[in-house]
Amino acid sequence: MTLLVVSPDYASHLLPLATLATAWRDRGERVVVATGPATAGIVDAFGFERRDLRLGRGSNPGVIAAGEQPPDEGASLRGFFRATAEGALATLRYQAEERLTDLMWDPVGRAAETARIVQDLAPDQVLVDHLAFSARLGLQSEGTAHGEVVLGHPSALPVGREVYGVPPAWPSAFDPDPSALEALERLCRTVSERFTAEWNRAAGVLDPGHRPVEDAFAEHGPLVLYNYPSELVDDERRRLLPPHRFLGSARRAEAEDAEVEAWLAQRRPFVYVSFGSFLSVRGDVLARVVGALREIGATAAVATGSTDAAELGDLPRDWLVRGYLPQVRLLGAAAAAVTHGGNNSVTEAIGSGVPLVVLPFSTDQFAGAAAIEAVGFGVVLDPNAASAQDIADALRRVLDLPVDARGRLDAVAADQAARPGPEVAFDALTA
């Protein structure tokens, strides 16, 4: 049996997809990953084969820096980082304006290359990132059945009256101006129309019999796999979803890190802090988090990412501070976590029973943060408005989670441990 995994050349996308594929690898099946060269080391570490497939102009092997990207992508990233400092709506507007080049880079060429890889491998099953739109066109043109993995809040695949790029829910810490929100929705509708026209044009080149679709962002394959805990999805939205499975999370196994293990052996309660591959550039917010941790006298493990640790001041000697840390391992022992609300951070924390302080910056992080707040698994703050004292107060709240919320969070983690996401994906695709 051969499984083909199709992923953009970004670690944050490939890591959960590769983790899902371990269910095939551990059964002795063949796994081939089609992705770009930047993440080749990740493919090798999992013990998979690789086929070269570039699905976008940018890449990210783990920690991203604008200066390491092609000129156009570097400029785009710098613009994005500036927008996050201006606030939620400014960021969402910027991302909407960038969306065509972000999501449909050389669609016909990339779709044809995906189709060529499928023809060569003749895989028994295919897992593809939902946001790999060009690759999905290639699978569609070949009539290849596949499982489509939504790596993010489920609203990354809009349903009902949702508009791609507009959060369907906001945490209480955010109160967007109604007129500005309406302007964002108009912009996102325009982007959706242009994107859909590009999708239909490319699909028509690949398959002259293609019937135009009304909203390409809402298109999906026969089976959608949400890398998300079902407990964070309300019943009203659940009724609108396409045929699907909730995976809970894709918590990967990580190589043992001697320094981390020695630090953990001291068995102190600690808070894990990470803003992921992209948002770690916001050293100003990380510095306020550090100040909050000092305020409450907490021990911390801090992944600084692209922020120089020197920008955070003189840190306590008993903290674990590095550019990159084994997140899953540390979440397995943490008392709480501070995050930007990225899908990997949220799902891996919930799967470990760890409550969250969420500081969302962009995309579906707002909807994901609202879901965390709604079920009582964490506290959400505006990263541009929250003071160190606000963050300290939020940390105190999550470290002393109410008994009911604590019990429900532990139950979610126990259910995921009993039935991990890779096993759910394997059963769904091989059924």
TrEMBL record:
<dbReference type="Pfam" id="PF00201">
    <property type="entry name" value="UDPGT"/>
</dbReference>
<dbReference type="GO" id="GO:0017000">
    <property type="term" value="P:antibiotic biosynthetic process"/>
</dbReference>
<keyword id="KW-0808">Transferase</keyword>
<dbReference type="InterPro" id="IPR050426">
    <property type="entry name" value="Glycosyltransferase_28"/>
</dbReference>
<dbReference type="GO" id="GO:0008194">
    <property type="term" value="F:UDP-glycosyltransferase activity"/>
</dbReference>
<dbReference type="InterPro" id="IPR002213">
    <property type="entry name" value="UDP_glucos_trans"/>
</dbReference>
<protein>
    <submittedName>
        <fullName>Glycosyltransferase</fullName>
    </submittedName>
</protein>
